[in-house]
Amino acid sequence: MPTAVLPPLMPETTLGQVLQSYPSAQRALFARYHIGGCSSCAFSPTETLAEVCARNENIPVTEVIQHIQDSHTLDVQLQISPREFADLARIETKLQILDARTREEHDAVKIPGAQLMTQELVQHVFSNWDKTTPIVLYDHTGSRALDAVAYFIGHGFTDIKCLTGGIDAYSQEVDPTLPRYRVEIEA
């Protein structure tokens, strides 16, 4: 998958700019430094990297920048484009496709052959599937499925990818017969 040239991160880069260019940054910051994952460690999009580092025990800004960039590189390696996925699905007979969306979304529209990733299915997979089983996980837009991929990797799975852009990108780039939709959250 071609990688886009990302803007360099500097101490004066705001967290809003960081998250726009490096979507995995919030997950990476929380995982390593407990920054940005809950209300007690939240940050403002207008805060700079230097400001966030200073108020979090003076973490070296260069270390944080390197961690964000390394995490982004790892996230890119865990993804598969809709085109690559379609090609893989045609040739890989053992491929398992897991849908990390809600039951309602899955029932409304799904990629052919996908199984809804319920807690029961996850327990079955962890207990019974070979850890080298090729798996592609997807959600609506590709944002949450990376967390699920990391969870599977943490349980020993070695051939698992996240569908870049989720079912929405797959519908646009590969199978336009799949209806697109928006998720509306009730207030």
Summarize the structure.
By secondary structure, the chain is α/β, with parallel strands linked by helices. Helices cover about 45% and strands about 10% of the residues.
Give me some keywords for this one:
alpha/beta, five-stranded parallel sheet, 2 domains, 5 strands, elongated, 187 residues, Oxidized Rhodanese, domain 1, 9 helices
Outline the structure in words.
With 187 residues, this protein is an alpha/beta fold. The protein has two domains: 15-77, no CATH class; 79-173, Rhodanese-like domain (Oxidized Rhodanese, domain 1, 3-Layer(aba) Sandwich), CATH 3.40.250.10. The protein contains nine helices and five strands; from the N terminus they run H-H-H-H-E-H-E-H-E-H-E-H-E-H. Strands 1-5-4-2-3 form a five-stranded parallel sheet. The radius of gyration is 18 Å and the shape is elongated. It starts with 14 loop residues before the first helix and ends in a 14-residue tail after the last helix. The model has no long low-confidence stretch (mean pLDDT 92).
